[in-house]
Amino acid sequence: MLSGDGILEVANGSDFEVHVFQSSSELVAKLQEKWSSVEKQPYPAMYSSVFGGIILDPALMVIPIDDHMVHRGHGVFDTAVLFDGYLYELDAHLDRFLRSAAKAKIPSPFPRSTLRSILVQLTAASGCKRGTLRYWLSAGPGNFLLSPAKCPTSAFYAVVIGEDISQCKEGVKVITSSVPMKAPQFATMKNVNYLPNVLSVMEAEEKGAVASIWVDEEGYVAEGPNVNVAFITREKELIVPFFDKILSGCTVKRLLELAPKLVEEGRLQDVKLANVTVEEAKSAAEMMYVGSTLPVLPIIMWDDQPIRDGRVGELTMELSNLLWDDMVAGPGTQRIPVPYKA
User: Fold this and answer.
1) pTM of the full predicted structure?
2) Pick the catalytic residue: 182, 190, 245, 282?
3) Before 295, cis peptide (omega within 30)?
4) Is 279 helix (H, G, I), strand (E, B) or coil?
5) 40 is an active site residue
6) 132: which residues sit within 8 A by CB, 6+ positions away?
7) How far apart are CA 115 and CA 323, in angstroms?
8) Which of 28, 41, 156, 188 is most buried, taking the most CB atoms under 10 A from its CB?
9) Once rounded to an integer, what is the mean pLDDT over residues 51-77?
10) What is the largest CA-CA distance in the chain?
């Protein structure tokens, strides 16, 4: 029987009898039972190179247990936002995805053009108009060894996740993470080894915050658990930490391209990459997270210390508007229309 917290309880382990599924049809029926009561499927479509096609039944959206991404963490991933029927910054994310794969020594089973085509076709088949498109490249299934040398081929997976994407306007609280940040070799590639990221978020939540900030061994601000961080100084400079030890965020790089517009209008004085000490950061006029699904999340308190007056900054929201407008009605180089079937 299940306890109140969902844990299976048995009086005596020796009395517990494990069910044996006698056929694949019985197992599929059991898997489909889980999703039968779900009003709206959160994962409308998945692609698997192992199956060689697109899957629309969430009960069958599975990955082999002997896939090296599962049992060894040998995989990379990336995400693109799907907004009102357009894929935002797909090419920038796909380019970073392949750079991460090269660093992780995972060859793609397809050329870039095929990967891109699969992702667009998958999104079209999903019928989803708003959410995220997440995709992985794995060393592949084949065995449970450390080396993937005997795996027949690498594997490519992707899934469309239906979710609401809305502009963040409320400020949040963050903490300095006590969880050690990843070494630059791993932090600069978007790989699936996210345990430090998970633990840093859990630590923040336990302390009543939304997320955390990593600080490197030299005392410079690094990044959040899955987002970049940026600051507006009291001199109205937009500063983003260097990418040499952290992930090169596609969204924050786009923000660096768009922000000079505010310099031209006299709203900002400068836009630059620079090292930022914790002392400098906490004395900033404004602070924010920058990431694909946000695209900007104002930070109003860090380690129980307000950022300036503890309110969402005006320039933070102007930067947020720049990215939001780019997502909603930006140039064709940034927004790829999805060819849905009527």
Assistant:
1) 0.93
2) 190
3) yes
4) helix
5) no
6) 79, 80, 81, 82, 160, 161, 163, 165, 292, 293
7) 26
8) 156
9) 97
10) 74
Please answer whether residues 310 and 301 qualify as being in contact, where contact means their C-beta atoms are separated by less than 8 angstroms. Answer: yes
State the amino acid at position 90 in one-letter form: L
Residue corresponding to tokens 């891109």: 116
Tokens of 199: 């633990």
Contact 288, 210 (CB under 8 A): no
If you search the block for the tokens 């040998």, which residue do you land on?
74
Residue found under tokens 């978007």:
190
Residues 6+ apart with CB under 8 A from 198: 225
Q: Dihedrals φ, ψ of 333, to 5°?
A: -70, -20
At residue 92, φ and ψ (nearest 5 deg) are -65, -40
The counts of H helices and E strands in the chain are 10, 15
Tens digits of per-residue pLDDT, 121-159? Answer: 999 999 999 999 999 999 999 999 999 999 999 999 999
Angle, helices 90-103 vs 112-126, to 10°: value is 130
